[in-house]
Amino acid sequence: EPLFRSVSRGRYNVRASAGTDLSKPDNQVVSPDRDTIVYSAAAGTPLGEKAGVMLFYDRRQDEGNSRLPQKAIVDSLLLKGHIKLSDVLSLNMDIGKDWQKKEKAIISSVITPSGRYERKYDTTRGSLGLTYKQGAHHWSTTLNQQKQKFITQTATGTAKNIDLESVYTYYGDKHWATIGAEIRQDDYYQYV
Predict the structure, then answer these.
(1) Considering only CA atoms, which of 160, 146, 159 is closest in space to residue 191?
(2) DSSP at 29
(3) What pLDDT digit, counting tens, does each position of 87-134 carry?
(4) Does pTM surpass 0.70?
């Protein structure tokens, strides 16, 4: 079972937007030098001769790119699977979960106190796709679904979307032709 691990750490600088009047203290970037850390790990294995799975974990942390630094941490987990149903047909699937938290940031400036609320986002997503490949013909259809729950100091809610897309491509000797369609539904519910 191959295992991949990676850790990276960096520092970045946030600048005010072009045209900002920096003579006003409330327009100045607070703590412009900020840190970022990314840790990733992945493992995958075949399941027989026609299937395989992969598990991926990722943790990202930074301090944002707005005027006020706001520590954000995102943990992501993703499970992917692939099954070859025949010589021309395959099935792909994945399910993932993200946990995101942005910590509260308040800075008392000379003129106006500024702040950003603590926020939490939990996102679940999944997809199921069928791919047909034979000679110059390539057709794929994928169903994607995502649901995000959010909590802030001022509101709580849920955002959902589901989409179905289908794309056919003909790979000719001198020309390629692609046609596709997508149907999408978005729902948003907010509770104060």
Answers:
(1) 159
(2) P
(3) 999 999 999 999 999 887 766 554 454 556 678 999 999 999 999 999
(4) yes
